[in-house]
Amino acid sequence: xxxxxxxxxxxxxxxxGLRPLRLRDVNAWRETRLRNADWLRPWEPSNPETPLFRxxxxxxxxxxxxxxxxxxxxxxxxxxxxxxGAFAGQLTVGAIVWGxxxxxxxxxxxxxxxxxxxxIPTALAMAVDHxxxxxxxxxxxANIRPENHASRRVVEKLGFREEGVRRRQLHIDGAxxxxxxxxxxxxxxxxxxxxxxxxxxxxxxxxxxx
Length: 210
Hints:
Elements: E1 11-13, E2 16-20, H1 26-35, H2 37-40, H3 58-72, E3 77-83, E4 86-97, E5 103-110, H4 119-135, E6 139-144, H5 149-157, E7 161-172, E8 175-185, H6 193-209
Parallel strand pairs: 5-6
Antiparallel strand pairs: 1-2, 2-3, 3-4, 4-5, 6-8, 7-8
């Protein structure tokens, strides 16, 4: 696939936004990750190209270059997550497979100071709808460590289906770790995941006020 349909794109829902990752995000990215090193370390791939504690520009430039190249090849959608216009984290749809699969994997992180505000569920709902209804994907997976309860709550709130454990799937925080596979297909959200998430939040707010 020469060019990804529907990319680049910026998406917004209230104070939450998704926009393409840029080279000039380096300072915000570096500062946020250093400040959240302990928050992120247990869930981070052990990847020497993007270590948490390096302060140079090299790892970030390498990551952005790789992701932008994959986006041009139709293999990834690398977004920055914003909250009230400020850098808040990342959400990347990657490992896109076309042909008869039309599937991809999604990964995300958010600053610990912003956790619990519905930012990542909202961002993920927007990303899912864009992937299904504009890009043309059919299946999205999120593979999460069993111990990462916060990240598991995100996909469970959105109705991702738990499909089992993938043994020692990824090298995380210095060792090979098991991951739980969660997935959604287009048929699971025929009217869109964002609309479903809005209804869930409205119901929660109503129940909390009654």
